[in-house]
């Protein structure tokens, strides 16, 4: 299996920390079994030059809202718009295998709202979620989810 690609945006460093832990976990798995894919994590920011994606990838995005509750009183996305624009650039959404959301469960219905919105907007699965920086168990679970989703797509 080819390497898994993860595009992510990180504002407070939580998503970056999770991506780094995912890369390290994948390396360990690959050392134990060379059939296990590595993870290539690529940070997207306001300074990123948009590129037309030609390989499949996953997205990890936190939720930051400015005003509204995200449900009844509207949504004003804050700081993560660049990722949505990147996915929407040319045919990039065609290569997105799934969206991984992060957030703080204290925000109830707003938890992972950006990932869920991107999932609907770009017609790709909401694959998984983790809170804040995620736990070791989250890293294992999400790595496995990514491996399974990649295999699913390959076998279609």
Topology:
Blueprint: E1 4-8, H1 14-32, E2 39-43, E3 57-62, H2 81-88, E4 96-103, H3 113-122, E5 126-131, H4 136-154
Parallel strand pairs: 1-2, 1-3, 3-4, 4-5
Helix pairs in contact: 1-4
Low-confidence stretches: none
Q: Looking across the biggest beta sheet, what order are the strands in?
A: 2-1-3-4-5
What's the helix count?
4
* First-last Cα distance: 15 Å
Query: Which structural class do the helices and strands define?
Result: alpha/beta
Number of domains: 1
Q: For the report, how would you describe the main beta sheet?
A: 5 strands, parallel
Residue-averaged pLDDT: 90
Outline type? globular
CATH fold type: Rossmann fold
Plain-language structure description:
By secondary structure, the protein is α/β, with parallel strands linked by helices. The protein has a single domain (4-154), classed as Flavodoxin domain (Rossmann fold). Helix content is 36%, strand content 19%. The protein has four helices and five strands. It has helices at residues 14-32, 81-88, 113-122, 136-154, and strands at 4-8, 39-43, 57-62, 96-103, 126-131. A five-stranded parallel β-sheet has the order 2-1-3-4-5, sandwiched between helices. Helix 1 (14-32) crosses helix 4 (136-154). It is globular. The two termini are 15 Å apart.
